[in-house]
UniProtKB/TrEMBL annotation:
Name of the protein: TLR21 protein
Family: Belongs to the Toll-like receptor family.
InterPro entries noted in UniProt: Leu-rich_rpt, Leu-rich_rpt_typical-subtyp, LRR_dom_sf, TIR_dom, Toll-like_receptor, Toll_tir_struct_dom_sf
Record PANTHER family: TOLL-LIKE RECEPTOR, TOLL-LIKE RECEPTOR 2
Gene designation per UniProt: Tlr21
Lineage start: Eukaryota, Metazoa, Chordata, Craniata, Vertebrata
Predominant subcellular localization, coarse grouping: membrane
A molecular-function term among this protein's GO annotations: transmembrane signaling receptor activity
Keyword tags: Disulfide bond, Glycoprotein, Immunity, Inflammatory response, Innate immunity, Leucine-rich repeat, Membrane, NAD, Receptor, Repeat, Signal, Transmembrane, Transmembrane helix
One of the GO biological process terms: toll-like receptor signaling pathway
Pfam families: LRR_8, TIR
Length: 729
């Protein structure tokens, strides 16, 4: 309907006018932290002083950094310029920033890098240059003066060349990240100048470049993370021409594509890296059936890897995958195995028996079920296992689960949470040395003597327990959070308890008997539990202050008036769009600014109301009902008029919004599909004068014909004839 958009048109225009007056260039000089992000700046704002330590200019439209822009910000520690349009940096732009520790120039338009930019950044530790448009790092090193650099982020989709000498000057890095998705040329030895890299992440697709980079990094990188590569069939050894001793201990593949052939070659090749202790594969794809070259793998000798972590691996031919028969000789030295969210439903008994050294096994979030668990944990399997995580699988029987797990003689930590057991028997078989048991979120309705008495830690949180009365003489920690307990468990049956969590239960009071024989040490209660009355009082005070704040803001920004107008619009929306013909009593409702009242009332009204036949006009000064709310007056007058006549001028679009009786005359939605609106342009209006939020006014002036008040008398006579004709149509 008309009225709503007409009302909000005027409000938006006037509010934007007020805000424009209040908003100036943000002053960053008064505080040490200056946040100027996402403010539409085309340049670095002037007036930056030595008080500023952090300057955030990210997500603006800055194209150039000039010499004088940062000259006074000598104490700057962090400069964030990411996601601008920077394509040019003066050579001495950062010359005064000797204390700068973080510089982020990522996601800009830098076509080259210059060592002169960084020549005086003696304290720089973190440099982010990824996401620009440079194709190489130049003929020499742009980082030669950055002796304290700790982390470096490089590369972009166009980055294609790494040359010898590009990293000269950098000896130690905590983190090196290279986006080399299109890296096609790597000069051997380019990364060898860096003596030590704790963690390197590289996005790479070219298999030859990958091999060369790995050979150069074996002596310096502790943890290498490779993403988005189709693992190649390596023709040359990964350790060929590599500097010894090797330092790499951990290798991670992310979003990598494996085949049966490439994974077989990878296993053989990685054995040559004698320092490698940990392998990870995250979000990878395996296209194959598990037909690996086990003979070649066995001939290559023993692996030095002790820890394997696989997360969210997708096997394309999952239903055809073999049981990895022949890999038994490669797993007997493995100590930790984690396979998460990978649809594992079984481990063949013959394979599980060869995990002779495995101490930690994590199968969280897989598809293990009870009848397959009998095969996975068969007699003689996992002989050294101490910790087992089977949480969030599809186990249904606690009795069977406990029976199969009792075959693990050295197990002392067990997590079987988030399985839907539902029931708990009175008697269960467990490993003799079980110390930790997690049964949280398993839907058990009670606890029974199925729980082993050897436990030192028990977690039965998030079940439906109404009481806890077990005798557990060795228990030290008990977690009963999110149950239905109304009383504390007795102290006597748990004499060695040192930690008890009973949050989010139905406890109302504690009895003396509950603590008999036990001294309460440290109690960890939340603020709400310890000081409930104080918290309630604080909440009441905060609510009261919030109400006061809302009242103050509402008064300042006329929120009550906004609400009244919205209510009036909702009421008007229920009415018919047009009043019945018998209720239409005006030819036109006139909307105009008070500054134009002399022309309207003395010239236009006289001309139209004294015409033959006369026109009947509705003016707010003369025809509004006294005592009636002004919005209702306007809506009723518009509905009772054939037309709405707008007298447009610069005063019209610049009216002060606080003068309600004037602004309401603008409240009408221009409907392009009918001729209800007549525009009279009293004087030329420059387009830049019309507020941007007057979008409907701009649109109608571009699409509807309007009448311009002329200067000459002859033209004025034609104006009146045209206006009368429009009113009659």
């Amino acid at each position: 309907t008309w009225q709503m958009l007409a009302i909000y048109m005027v409000l938006a225009a006037n509010l934007s006018e007020q805000q424009a007056l209040k908003q100036a260039s943000p002053s960053c000089c008064a505080s040490q932290l200056c946040n100027c992000s996402s403010m539409g700046f085309d340049f670095i704002p002037p007036g930056l002083t030595a008080k500023i330590t952090v300057l955030n200019l990210a997500h603006n439209r800055i194209k150039r950094i000039q010499s004088q822009d940062l000259q006074q910000a000598v104490n700057l520690r962090a400069l964030l310029l990411q996601s601008n349009r920077i394509s040019s940096i003066d050579e001495d732009s950062f010359q005064s920033l000797a204390k700068l520790e973080l510089l982020d120039l990522s996601n800009n338009s830098l076509a080259h890098l210059s060592s002169l930019w960084f020549g005086h950044l003696f304290s720089l530790q973190h440099l982010h240059l990824q996401g620009n448009s440079y194709r190489d790092l130049g003929q020499s090193s742009p980082f030669s003066s950055l002796r304290n650099l700790s982390s470096l982020h490089l590369g972009n989709p166009w980055f294609s060349v790494i040359r010898q000498g590009n990293f000269e000057g950098i000896e130690h890095l905590h983190k090196l990240w290279i986006d080399g998705s299109n890296l096609s040329q790597y000069e051997q030895g380019s990364l060898k100048s860096i003596k030590e890299i704790n963690h390197m992440i590289i996005n790479i697709r070219n298999i030859n470049v990958f091999s060369e980079i790995v050979r150069d990094l074996l002596h310096s990188v502790s943890w290498l993370e490779v993403t988005e590569i189709k693992l190649p069939v390596l023709k040359k050894s990964l350790v060929q021409n590599s500097t010894r001793p090797f330092r790499i201990q951990k290798l991670t593949f992310k979003e990598t594509f494996f085949t049966d052939q490439t994974i077989s070659h990878a296993i053989v090749s990685l054995k040559a890296i004698t320092s490698l202790k940990e392998l990870e594969a995250i979000n990878c794809v395996l296209a194959g059936k598990g037909i690996w070259n086990t003979k070649e793998i066995a001939r290559s000798g023993q692996s030095f890897v002790e820890t394997v972590m696989i997360k969210k691996i997708m096997i394309q031919n999952f239903h055809l995958f073999f049981d990895l028969e022949g890999m038994e000789s490669q797993i007997n030295e493995l100590k930790r195995l984690t396979i998460l969210s990978s649809n594992v439903f079984m481990v063949p008994c013959n394979l599980s028996r060869h995990f002779s050294s495995l101490q930690y096994l994590d199968f969280h979030d897989n598809l293990l079920v009870n009848n397959r668990l009998n095969e996975t944990i068969c007699k003689g399997s996992w002989p050294s296992l101490q910790t087992l995580n089977l949480s969030q699988n599809s186990l249904k029987s606690l009795e069977q689960t406990a029976k199969y797990i009792s075959r693990l003689p050295k197990l002392n930590n067990l997590d079987i949470s988030q399985n839907n057991f539902g029931e708990i028997p009175n008697v269960c078989e467990w490993p003799e040395n079980l110390k930790y048991l997690n049964l949280s979120s398993t839907q058990i309705p009670k606890v029974t003597t199925c729980i082993p008495q050897t436990l030192e830690v028990l977690d039965v949180s998030a079940n439906n327990l109404k009481e806890f009365g077990l005798q557990l003489p060795f228990l030290k920690e008990l977690y009963l959070t999110r149950n239905q307990l109304k009383t504390l468990p007795g102290a006597a049956p748990i004499p060695n308890l040192v930690a008890l969590s009973v949050r989010r239960n139905k406890l109302n009071s504690f009895s003396k008997e509950a603590f008999e024989g036990a001294q309460v040490g440290t109690v960890h209660l939340s603020v709400t539990e310890c000081h409930r009355s104080l918290v309630v009082s604080l909440i009441c005070v905060l609510v009261f202050l919030l109400i006061l704040l809302l009242v103050a803001v509402g008064y300042k920004y006329h929120m009550v008036w906004y609400l009244r107008m919205t209510w009036a619009w909702l009421q008007a929306k229920r009415k018919p769009k047009r009043a019945p013909p018998k209720d239409v009593c005006y030819d036109a409702f006139v909307s105009y600014s008070e500054n134009d009242s002399e022309w309207v009332e003395n010239t236009m009204v006289r001309e139209l109301e004294q015409a033959c036949p006369p026109f009947r006009l509705c003016l707010h000064k003369r025809d509004f009902v006294p005592g009636k709310w002004i919005v209702d007056n306007i809506i009723d007058s518009i509905e009772k008029s054939h037309k709405t006549l707008f007298v447009l001028s610069e005063h019209f679009v610049r009216s002060e919004w606080c003068k309600y009786e004037l602004d309401f005359s603008h409240f009408r939605l221009f409907d392009e599909n009918n001729d209800a609106a007549i525009l009279v342009l009293l004087e030329p209006i420059q387009s830049n004068v019309i507020p941007k939020r007057f979008c409907k006014l701009r649109k109608i002036m571009n699409t509807k014909t309007y009448l311009e008040w002329p200067a000459g008398e002859e033209e004025q006579q034609m104006f009146w004839e045209n206006l009368k004709g429009a009113l009659k149509s």
